[in-house]
From TrEMBL:
<dbReference type="GO" id="GO:0005737">
    <property type="term" value="C:cytoplasm"/>
</dbReference>
<keyword id="KW-0143">Chaperone</keyword>
<dbReference type="GO" id="GO:0051224">
    <property type="term" value="P:negative regulation of protein transport"/>
</dbReference>
<dbReference type="GO" id="GO:0005048">
    <property type="term" value="F:signal sequence binding"/>
</dbReference>
<dbReference type="Pfam" id="PF03927">
    <property type="entry name" value="NapD"/>
</dbReference>
<comment type="subunit">
    <text>Interacts with the cytoplasmic NapA precursor.</text>
</comment>
<comment type="function">
    <text>Chaperone for NapA, the catalytic subunit of the periplasmic nitrate reductase. It binds directly and specifically to the twin-arginine signal peptide of NapA, preventing premature interaction with the Tat translocase and premature export.</text>
</comment>
<comment type="similarity">
    <text>Belongs to the NapD family.</text>
</comment>
<keyword id="KW-0963">Cytoplasm</keyword>
<protein>
    <recommendedName>
        <fullName>Chaperone NapD</fullName>
    </recommendedName>
</protein>
<dbReference type="InterPro" id="IPR005623">
    <property type="entry name" value="Chaperone_NapD_NO3_reduct"/>
</dbReference>
Amino acid sequence: MNISSIVIQTKPLHVKEIIAICEASDFCDYHFSDEQTGKIIVTIEGENLDEEMSKMKKIEQIPHVICADMMMAYSEDELDEQREMLEHSPSVPEILNDETIALKDIVYKGDLKKKIH
């Protein structure tokens, strides 16, 4: 499941109209607005990035929307995939994945200057 926040920009006189459309829609959830700046905050959810992008395009097509920008995104699936990749990566020492060892007990004896090019 992916969840993303979108900032919609419009002219101040169209804020209430766009909020009403968002609240009546099935593709986003309205959360906050600033009528003076014309900014509206909504969230979208999707099973994958394609579904989220489809919903964002619907927001962009709302009359009087100047732009809609994704500000934050969260993806449970990608996070799990990244964790799995790190746990099985040969470049990550096994000690870092050992839950029985406290981080404070790990002593680094390397040289970061040699790693930076």
